[in-house]
Design goal:
InterPro entries: Cyclic-di-GMP_PDE-like, EAL_dom, EAL_sf, GGDEF_dom, Nucleotide_cyclase, Rev_trsase/Diguanyl_cyclase. It comes from Vreelandella lutescens. With 751 residues, this protein is α/β, with parallel strands linked by helices. It contains 29 helices and 15 strands. The strands form two sheets. Strands 6, 7, 8, 9, 10, 11, 12, 13, 14 and 15 form a ten-stranded mixed β-sheet that branches. A five-stranded mixed β-sheet has the order 2-3-1-4-5, sandwiched between helices. Strand 10, helix 24 and strand 11 form a beta-alpha-beta unit. The longest helix has 39 residues.
Length: 751
């Protein structure tokens, strides 16, 4: 609220025509009011105990700068002429006043340039102006009002008058310029009980001062010092915008009381006694000024901390707390949310450092800010790498168009969001209908949606059509899966266990050659066996794949070393995730496991899925080269389905390609699929790599694939996946079966 008032209230600094006339009128109003309230007290002190006009001018110059100098100078000139000052007095006085105004403007500019903290600038500006103005005008006043050498009491009275005026009214003028007249004087809430309490204390203090009069007892002398606490009470009981006005009003009335006591007709004017009370008023003004600045600094610090608590320090966007706070002020029930995720931020930070990753995040934030849409409610960075664009809910397709454009911009090579040797894989999702009451869990909703999107990397935008309740339920299921997987990997099988399955890889030319691919299954506590699609995407999302890959490799080699037929396998293929390729332990672990279980490197094939996300491609290439030098075979799985098929093959130098089943299923009826397989066979021959066809389902496909030049076959048409121990036990039976099956098949021409 205070920030809104501040921005709204800077009306004097933004409107050009009115302020100059208003500055003239304000200076004159203050001068006339001061003259009427405080006529000259005595022939020895022919001055007013306060002069608010100049102080108001200083405060306005601190805010508005040099453009108000002519108005205030003209007001003072007209005043001096009307008052009947001599030409010499006018020239000297006006020169001093104009120079003082210019000095105040210079001081304000210098403090802005050289003092960074706003509190320090405020604490320096007004006291320095008070000292300078008091020194200048006390000297000029003593010269003007003295026929001979100026008296010390006159100089001191003028000095106190000027300092008290500046301490009270210069900050008040600043406040008026910042917040406006309405918020300074007309926003008083009379139902605010501390205001009534303070008014009662202030009136009581003034009446007590007036009643005690000019006594010399300790109580009479100490009462003014007790009145110094009244401005302090105003600071801590009243709002800061009201406290400054209240203090100025109280001190002005106190000055009236002081003048009344000093000019009573029944006693002679005591200059020293009056100056003593003026010193107490000066102390009250200074204490009030310092107290207000202290409270304002505390309030500003509190506001800054609140903003920092709700603001992301990296991008300047709102953070997760800021979005949750937004829910308390929105009148909407539903919103649409576009989520953007930079995945694997922790790994990227470890790879290239905080500065580079944060640079990418700031670029994403800039892209979000650049979206021109009137219904954008909030842009936020909820967590490292996770952003949200919150918009008003509308039933049309406008938001989807915005999301698609954003996805295109973020995926464009011209966006500049690149890290050499890595694939960022920025994910964009859209949740078209999110309840405002669910803002506190928005990060979890977007992360769950992004995990769904990452399972379909070919789509640049993932549009979630379900309800947020379904997302929350899926999140709970994923959390349960993570708990079960971690337990199983640690050896606790009470909630289920991982199973090793094998699917044979068969050569028609040598059906007795034993090869298989290791597949993973999950057996729940009720005995049901689940496919890897039920849990592997979750394991990949939550960073468990390196542990899973290590478990599969170790348990596979252990099972082969324990089974009598394990040594008969000419090769065993194990899938390797992109996350494992980024692990620095990969080469050492593979080498150690092969040594422990006495498995020759030439009989181990590591399958790398072409669509796998590899964050550090350079490190992955280095690891695979080391494994290949050891003798381990590398195969590229699902070949032909990725977006960088040939670049993948060129980068990793595989010895085997596995053609994805998408090109095998319709091989009999699709001339396109046959040509793709034929071209792949030609490529394989040129590169001297072997070919495996997946998803082979019938004899016709077997004959076509052999005719096209495929080396190995894999699929339900030959054998479904089976437990590894079962496969090892029936190797001979399966080989005889395939031999008999192939003997009955004719050999087709490659044409």
């Amino acid at each position: 609220m205070r920030m809104t008032r501040h921005i709204h209230g800077e009306w004097l600094t933004k409107r050009r025509g009115i302020p100059l006339c208003l500055a003239f009128a304000t200076w004159w109003l203050a001068a006339v009011t001061t003259t009427l309230l405080f006529p000259p007290m005595d022939s020895t002190l022919p001055i007013s105990p306060i002069w608010a006009a100049n102080a108001l001018a200083y405060g306005a110059i601190l805010v508005g700068g040099l453009r108000w100098v002519p108005a205030f100078a003209l007001a003072a000139l007209v005043w001096n002429v009307v008052r009947g000052d001599s030409i010499g007095e006018i020239i000297v006085g006006m020169t001093a006043f104009v120079l003082m105004l210019l000095w105040v403007a210079w001081l304000s500019h210098s403090l802005q340039q050289h003092v960074r903290r706003d509190r320090a600038r405020r604490l320096l500006a007004v006291p320095l102006i008070a000292l300078m103005s008091a020194s200048v005008f006390a000297g000029l006043g003593a010269w003007q009002f003295s026929d001979g050498p100026p008296s010390q009491s006159l100089w001191m009275a003028l000095w106190l008058s000027e300092t008290v005026s500046v301490l009270l009214f210069a900050p008040l003028a600043q406040q008026i310029c910042h917040y406006g007249v309405k918020n300074t004087f007309l926003s008083i809430h009379f139902k605010h009980w501390p205001l009534w309490l303070w008014m009662g204390v202030a009136i009581s203090a003034l009446l007590a001062l007036l009643q005690l009069g000019n006594g010399t007892t300790l109580w009479h002398l100490g009462a003014p010092y007790l009145a110094v606490t009244v401005p302090i009470m105003a600071v801590y009981w009243l709002p800061s915008t009201l406290a400054r006005t209240a203090i100025a009003l109280f001190v002005t009335l106190w000055l009236l009381v002081n003048v009344s006591l000093a000019t009573q007709p029944t006693i002679s004017f005591d200059v020293l006694a009056w100056l003593d009370r003026q010193w107490v008023i000066f102390i009250a003004s200074l204490v009030g000024f310092l107290s207000i600045e202290s409270v304002r600094s505390a309030e500003a610090a509190s506001r800054r901390l609140t903003l920092l608590r709700l603001k992301d320090p990296v991008t300047g966007l709102a953070n997760e707390l800021g979005v949750a706070e937004l829910a308390q002020h929105l009148s909407l029930e539903h919103v649409s949310v576009i989520g953007v995720q930079l995945p694997y931020t922790d790994e990227l930070v470890a790879l290239v450092g905080d500065d580079t990753v944060q640079r990418i995040e700031r670029q994403i934030a800039d892209q979000l800010r650049s979206q021109n849409a009137d219904d954008i409610v909030k842009i936020a960075r909820l967590r490292p790498g996770l952003f949200a664009l919150v918009m008003k809910h509308t039933p049309n397709a406008q938001h989807r168009t915005l999301a698609e454009r954003l996805a295109t911009q973020l995926s464009s090579e011209r966006s500049g969001m690149e890290i050499p040797g890595t694939h960022l894989g920025i994910t964009v999702v859209m949740l078209p209908n999110v309840q405002v009451s669910e803002f506190s869990s928005m990060a979890a909703l977007l992360l769950t949606a992004c995990r769904h999107a990452q399972r379909n990397p070919q789509e640049s935008l993932y549009h979630y059509h379900g309800t947020t309740a379904e997302l929350i339920a899926q999140q709970s299921q994923e959390a349960a899966w993570i708990h079960r997987l971690r337990a199983a990997l640690g050896g606790d099988t009470r909630q289920g266990k991982l199973l090793l399955y094998a699917q044979p890889i068969v050569s028609r030319r040598e059906p007795t050659q034993c090869r298989c691919e290791i597949l993973l299954r999950w057996q729940s506590i009720d005995g049901h066996v689940l496919s890897p699609q039920a849990f592997l995407p979750i394991a990949e999302t939550f960073g468990l794949m390196p542990q899973v890959d290590r478990w599969v490799l170790e348990n596979t080699l252990f099972a082969l070393s324990q089974h009598p037929n394990g040594h008969r396998l000419s090769s065993v293929s194990v899938n390797l995730s992109g996350d494992s390729l980024n692990c620095d332990w990969l080469v050492d672990v593979v080498d150690e496991l092969m040594s422990r279980y006495e498995w020759p490197p030439q009989r181990l094939c590591l399958e790398l899925t072409e669509s796998a996300t590899i964050q550090d491609t350079q490190a992955a290439s280095l690891s695979l080269q080391q494994l290949q030098r050891m003798g381990v075979c590398l195969a590229i799985d699902d070949f032909g389905t990725g977006r960088a098929t040939f670049a993948y093959l060129k980068q990793y130098h595989a010895q085997e390609l596995k053609i994805d089943g998408a090109f095998i299923r319709d091989l009999e009826s699709s001339a396109f699929d046959r040509e793709v397989v034929r071209a792949t066979c030609t490529l394989a021959q040129q590169l001297s790599v072997s070919l495996v066809a997946e998803f082979v389902e019938n004899d016709k496909q077997v004959m076509l694939l052999e005719a096209l030049g495929i080396d190995y076959l894999q699929g339900y048409g030959l054998s479904p996946p089976m437990p590894l121990d079962e496969y090892l036990s029936c190797i001979d039976v399966l080989a005889d079966k395939w031999q008999a099956q192939f003997n009955t098949l004719p050999v087709l021409s490659s044409e």
